[in-house]
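User: Hey, quick favor. My workstation is busy. Could you predict this chain's structure for me?
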Amino acid sequence: MTDEALYSAEDAFGWNLEDIKNALMRLMPKHWYKSEPRFDNPKIWVDYYRARNIMGENIYTHFYVEEDILIIDSFKEL
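Assistant: No problem, here it is.
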């Protein structure tokens, strides 16, 4: 998780890393918004999600996998 995503989730929702993990586990295919190539590496695809009422909050997040590691790049209020 990027520092920016962690700080945004804490600022917007008061969430820590465990809360973010729980929220991500609740995402469903219907929350998917779009996918597109990463701006600095078009071989990496970024998935964007918008979800309402996840643990009582409306969230926006995007993440991608790089070298078999999930990178959560953004996590904030929708």
